[in-house]
């Protein structure tokens, strides 16, 4: 029996009207397949719109490919970040899409993803086809193809290296999938030589220079200020030229991402057209090319490049209290964790202390409990990722003495490390409500800590630390329950509302911390 077509955010007539009006606000939220040409486009494609009888609409790029359509060479629908509707959802489908996006199928296969989600492979495939229009393997192949297309477009790597970096098992598979997705062989796709460079560094670690696309507007200054305010010694470096460098935990060891903030169009005084896409210049130093996709995914999460700023601003801009903030900071993003474990443990260290004190404690934790790395797995000047099991093996007294904590804080830190080492999942693909319950059950973990972990580690766009001191001051100092009531109209984007309320404080903190 053929499953019913997946749900769309609009009915057919409304989708056609949006596409006919080239409404960029719907880019990434649905796609247009043209039966007469066999291609699919984003709604804002400048090409002449086909007759309604030649149109089919899909909720994802993978669904278009699964139905036999190829990507349009003019509007580049694969270059538009995917919808954040799946990030808002906490159900099985939302979790599955997030985990596939994060490379779960590449790492463990469909069977491994199904086990992680506690469902059968058959049920996982059925529900994804019903809701998204494509099965898990098709979603994973589309993810690889889009990553490869970005590397072709933004680097001068040889095609064989791009195939390997994007996760393809062979050049033959690479060629077949790219022809299916784009209608031409990889060698026929245009390249932008001179915009990005790549090559080995002095210690044989591969280097990639990319321009990562995101929807405009993008508040680069606010995102950078947040990264500066939360920079951890030994894991982040703030450059005198305005750039920032960040250690990333990938399969082969520690990668490093360098973001050139001064070259972002809006940061350089070249405002991008509202609703267009802009590029964020990022240089990656990798243990190996096979770590490229994971590093790119982490950077996209850290910089919140897959957000839909127009959708969020429309949701929050209608509120009288938030409207001036949204107008003042268009394109404000919510930076997510590079490492769920690091962020969760760091949040406990940051309880009831200043940002500066929290960074000092996190730096001590990173220095003492970094995984030992050698050779190309190590990044010069940076600590490796946290060894959570090693933290869990320490006693509370040992942690208190080593890190300079109170006994109660040391006990909470150890309890959380034991839970994480035992399998508690607080990553972006986890069951958010289950993670919240497990966190809240730990002694010393209160509502503020739970919501802060939800916001940054779980990447929940609707997390809301109602008891946060800075947040309450920005709201006029209401009690936490009153702050909860105030924020009800902001759902499901309370995390972004919180970022707006924090923005001035973070900008001030970043200025103080610059050398």
From TrEMBL:
Residues in coiled coil: none
Keyword terms of this UniProt record: Activator, DNA damage, DNA repair, Methyltransferase, Transcription, Transcription regulation, Transferase
KW Aminoacyl-tRNA synthetase (keyword) present: no
InterPro entries: Ada-like_dom_sf, Ada_DNA_repair_Zn-bd, AlkA_N, AlkA_N_sf, Alkylbase_DNA_Glycosylase/TA, DNA_glycosylase, HhH-GPD_domain, HhH_base_excis_C
Domain HTH araC/xylS-type: 94-192
EC number: 3.2.2.21
Cofactor(s) for this UniProt protein: Zn(2+)
Protein's UniProt keywords contain Transferase: yes
Catalytic activity reported: Hydrolysis of alkylated DNA, releasing 3-methyladenine, 3-methylguanine, 7-methylguanine and 7-methyladenine
PANTHER family: DNA-3-METHYLADENINE GLYCOSYLASE (PTHR43003), DNA-3-METHYLADENINE GLYCOSYLASE 2 (PTHR43003:SF13)
Protein name: DNA-3-methyladenine glycosylase II
């Amino acid at each position: 029996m053929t499953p019913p077509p997946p749900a769309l955010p609009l009915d057919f007539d409304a989708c056609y009207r949006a596409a006919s009006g080239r409404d960029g606000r719907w880019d990434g939220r649905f796609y247009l397949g043209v039966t007469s040409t066999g291609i699919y486009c984003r709604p804002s494609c400048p090409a002449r719109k086909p007759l309604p009888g030649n149109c089919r609409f899909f909720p994802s790029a993978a669904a278009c490919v699964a139905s036999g359509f190829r990507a349009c060479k003019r509007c580049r629908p694969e270059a538009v970040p995917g919808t954040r509707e799946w990030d808002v959802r906490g159900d099985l489908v939302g979790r599955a899409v997030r985990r596939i996006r994060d490379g779960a199928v590449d790492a463990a296969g469909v069977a491994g993803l199904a086990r992680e989600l506690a469902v059968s492979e058959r049920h996982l495939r059925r529900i994804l086809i019903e809701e998204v229009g494509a099965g898990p393997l098709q979603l994973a192949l589309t993810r690889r193809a889009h990553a490869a297309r970005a590397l072709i477009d933004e680097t001068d790597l040889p095609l064989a290296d791009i195939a390997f970096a994007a996760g393809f098992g062979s050049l033959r598979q690479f060629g077949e999938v790219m022809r299916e997705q784009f209608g031409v062989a990889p060698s026929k796709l245009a390249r932008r030589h001179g915009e990005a460079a790549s090559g080995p560094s002095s210690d044989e670690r591969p280097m990639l220079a990319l321009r990562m696309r995101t929807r405009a507007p993008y508040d680069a200054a606010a995102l950078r200020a947040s990264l500066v305010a939360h920079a951890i010694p030994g894991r982040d470096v703030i450059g005198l030229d305005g750039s920032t460098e960040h250690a990333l935990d990938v399969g082969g060891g520690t990668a490093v991402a360098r973001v050139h903030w001064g070259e972002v169009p809006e940061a350089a005084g070249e405002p991008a057209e509202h609703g267009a896409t802009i590029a964020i210049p990022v240089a990656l130093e990798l243990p190996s090319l096979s770590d490229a996709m994971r590093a790119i995914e982490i950077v996209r999460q850290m910089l919140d490049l897959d957000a839909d700023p127009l959708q969020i601003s429309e949701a929050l801009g209608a509120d009288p209290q938030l409207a001036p903030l949204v107008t003042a900071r268009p394109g404000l993003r919510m930076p997510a964790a590079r490492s769920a474990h690091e962020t969760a443990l760091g949040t406990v260290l940051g309880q009831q202390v200043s940002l500066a004190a929290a960074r000092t404690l996190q730096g001590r934790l990173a220095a003492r409990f970094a995984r030992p790395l050698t050779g190309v797995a190590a990044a010069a000047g940076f600590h490796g990722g946290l060894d959570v099991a090693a933290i869990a093996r320490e006693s509370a007294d040992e942690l208190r003495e080593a890190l300079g904590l109170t006994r109660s804080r040391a006990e909470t830190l150890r309890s959380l490390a034991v839970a994480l080492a035992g399998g508690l999942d607080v990553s972006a693909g986890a069951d958010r409500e289950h993670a919240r319950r497990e966190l809240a059950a730990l002694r010393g973990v209160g509502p503020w800590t739970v919501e802060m972990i939800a916001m940054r580690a779980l990447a929940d766009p609707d997390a809301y630390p109602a008891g946060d001191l800075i947040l309450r001051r920005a709201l006029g100092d209401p009690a936490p329950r009153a702050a909860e009531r105030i924020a009800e109209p902001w759902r499901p984007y309370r995390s972004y509302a919180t970022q707006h309320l924090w923005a001035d404080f973070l900008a001030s903190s970043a200025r103080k911390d610059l050398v």
